Amino acid sequence: MIMRNKIKIATLLAVIGLVTACEQYELPVIGEPSQGDADFSKLIVVGNSVGAGYMNGALYVAGQNNSYPALIAAKMAETGGGSFNQPSLASTAENGCFNPSGGCTLGRLYLKLVNGSPAPTPKVPGNLEALAPYAGDKAALNNFCVPGLTIQTALLPQTGGPAASNPFFNPYYARFASNPGTSTVIGDAAAAMASGGTFFLYSLGSNDVLGYATGGASNPALLTSEAAFSAALTAGVNALLTANPNANGAIANIPDVTDLPFFNTVPFAPIPLSAAQVTALNTNFAGYNGILAALIANKAALQISDALAQSWPAGQ
To answer: Domain span at residue 305?
Structure first.
């Protein structure tokens, strides 16, 4: 009974200390959001996969609803921004389309234990609705971001069709192109700018280097030349500014591809430790490693895969 009272007293003192600390802390003053000199009443966005909401290897409803243009537009709405219309997918496209060329039988990727090891695995089934033509008002769209779009294909009418014998065909643009096979992504966005657009975001170019980089920089044909890149960038931005010379906008830089997770691993010994600290850690983890060693010794009976066992410290 005495021990319980001591615990209650200690807990009460801790709560009092926490409350006291909270009372002494001064919360920062957060100013009201302001649009400054910009006019956000009609935002137009041109971009690629990230802007479209493409995630986990597919375009699907949840990803599209959380695209960065939609999030930015929501904040702009607090300072006079207007509605923001995306080429929304059908509500049934919950898994999206991981393999357009295969008929969308597979959907977005998720981590799943396969033979005892986590691996990216497609959802089944995929949703053909992810490629279905957009049924809304194409003239009212604000988001012209297309998965897989490059800075040059944004200017090509072939991006919207035809599908046969066309290396530039992109089904994600074809589904909402104003005139598939004739219109272009930049042309559609410029038309939206001319129809009352006040602010634009332009973020293209990462796909012009990403395939080259992820391929080990071994195929120069995958890399857009500096001259072609500069010409396409100038043409795209000029088209938007010409459509409405009074509009403002922002152009996003291409991030350093080596900052992407694909090109990063956890370095060896990232946290410097002294010899004493290493000894203490090894001592504390001895019991944990012993349990892993016992599991590995009985991996057949416990149906633990060799790959998973090798990933444990005791399996090294």
So the answer is: 276-315
